[in-house]
């Protein structure tokens, strides 16, 4: 594995070249990476915190093996769901995979939407980011308002959880406003909870990210399209996951003894919400209703849209590593993007293609048109609608496999009934 400040070189004596493709959930990173890998004789290194887990396929949106077209994929299916996997482990594993790919004479193509992972992969430094001035002021004003209103601590914890940090609040001493403010700053700046930083080895979660020393020749791209379009994609993806096996995978996590939000795997958005829903179905008579399912689906979609927003926020903050990313309009034809990236890789000293100069256009999300679209945005389900066959099948599966838990006297009896239900449904 490469150490910081030590240059890694390829066989020609130059720094090893690495392609990084980032972007929000649902924008098409995997599709572009696969096509580019075929063009450049590349290998894909996943920078996804959930795809590392075996058996968690649907909820992590893994590219199925039979669709990888023979392209090697690294850091997928490497640990069991019962194990924690931190950004520190990712750094070590991703750097080792990069060295392996370069040694083979292939092109490492790192793909992911977790800005924190990608920053540490590039810089080799780990530490929670400082808040921008805007975030610092916004957090101060919001916390001061809650304090003045009286009884604001509980409201502040809810605000922290709604922002995406579900783990820090319960660990704080009551009225520890300093650490609560810092947790809010971290989640609003990075899109990651404070716990993601504190679990890193030799990492002070309140320290700022240090300066970078590039030991690879990074070619970095950020795929983007209007948020209103991304939201439609994400909402549909959530429906597809719920239809294609997310609930089954969440049920397996519960069966293994895991609780929601108890480790890295059960903390990810889709799995945590699905596990909580299924636990309620197992424990509460009559919980497997159409109304409760739609509540789960709505939460899943809303949290996923918020995650997209946090991903975009991270890259707009423009840290030292983020400044290296060329923003690409992902609505362009795939062939156009692949050609542009391949030419830029093969002839890096030439003028950058117009395809790679989209930032000045696509990052103006404060435009009147886009803001109006976001204000008017409403989820429109396309798979799960009232009385749809997909809804009926899913609810029946829940009643046949989850509600049995309340009445089964033995595990063997439960297993037999579940197998019988599965055989009947087939």
From TrEMBL:
The keyword Transferase applies. Keywords: ATP-binding, Cytokinin biosynthesis, Magnesium, Nucleotide-binding, Transferase, tRNA processing. One of its GO terms (molecular function) is tRNA dimethylallyltransferase activity. It catalyses: adenosine(37) in tRNA + dimethylallyl diphosphate = N(6)-dimethylallyladenosine(37) in tRNA + diphosphate. It is an enzyme of class 2 (transferase). Its cofactor is Mg(2+). It comes from the Eukaryota. Residues 15-389 form the AAA+ ATPase domain. Its EC number is 2.5.1.75. InterPro entries: AAA+_ATPase (IPR003593), Dimethylallyltransferase (IPR039657), IPT (IPR018022), P-loop_NTPase (IPR027417). One of its GO terms (biological process) is tRNA processing. It holds the Pfam family IPPT. HAMAP family: IPP_trans. PANTHER family: TRNA DIMETHYLALLYLTRANSFERASE. Belongs to the IPP transferase family. This is tRNA dimethylallyltransferase. The lineage of its organism: Eukaryota, Viridiplantae, Streptophyta, Embryophyta, Bryophyta.
